[in-house]
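Try this one yourself first.
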């Protein structure tokens, strides 16, 4: 079954973890712009060199660059039957880019999973992850920057998708498996079921 999904949530909402689970169950590739950028930084590619300081500061990579990365990835064969986007689009300009790209393929998003996690909870999870993983963008300052960008620029995209009737708000607090079950219940209500 084809499913074209987007998972949205503040940093520390668990969207990465839940996105991987949903992608595996529906047998669709997860396209995480954050992962693509981090892999490029790790490999020292031109793209990686271009974006490293932006990512470390917790700022957004320019829209054109980010949208080009996503277009390239979605053009690969494994994304023809569906995909789950994690971390893109992140502002209204990127929503317009994605709309245009999908329209050109006669496709549209089937559902937007919006993980709802209070700011305090996101903050404490990110601080814990900083201690465990030492990600360069998990400094206190970068975390504050990222949460601010989420609230100002990313949260408004949910209003746009909301008017299309495709947003499922999921309570992102609680046991990981329970949250996954909430997501699947919402997707099933839209007729999107795990492949096996
Ligand atoms: P994430 O793993 O989704 O939190 O992304 C890590 C970082 O990659 C972000 O803080 C941004 O610097 C960059 N990034 C990821 N996705 C985007 C996007 N859609 N637009 C701009 N920058 C992005």
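Now uncover the answer:
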């Amino acid at each position: 079954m084809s499913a074209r999904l987007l998972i949205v949530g503040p940093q520390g909402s668990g969207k990465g973890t839940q996105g991987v689970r949903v992608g595996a169950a529906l047998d669709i590739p997860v396209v995480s712009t954050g992962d693509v950028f981090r892999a490029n930084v790790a490999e020292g590619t031109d793209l990686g060199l271009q974006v490293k300081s932006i990512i470390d500061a917790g700022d957004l990579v320019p829209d054109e660059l980010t949208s080009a990365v996503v277009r390239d990835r979605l053009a690969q064969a494994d994304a023809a039957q569906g995909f789950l986007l994690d971390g893109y689009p992140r502002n209204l300009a990127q929503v317009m880019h994605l709309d245009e790209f999908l329209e050109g393929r006669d496709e549209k998003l089937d559902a937007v999973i919006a993980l709802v996690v209070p700011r305090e909870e996101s903050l404490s999870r990110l601080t814990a992850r900083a201690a465990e993983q030492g990600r360069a963008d998990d400094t206190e300052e970068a975390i504050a920057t990222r949460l601010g960008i989420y609230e100002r620029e990313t949260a408004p995209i949910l209003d746009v998708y909301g008017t299309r009737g495709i947003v499922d708000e999921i309570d992102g607090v609680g046991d990981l498996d329970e949250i996954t079950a909430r997501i699947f219940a919402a997707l099933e209500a839209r007729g999107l079921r795990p492949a096996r």
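Discussion: The two ends are 11 Å apart (CA to CA). The beta strands are 3-8, 30-32, 82-86, 111-116, 167-171.
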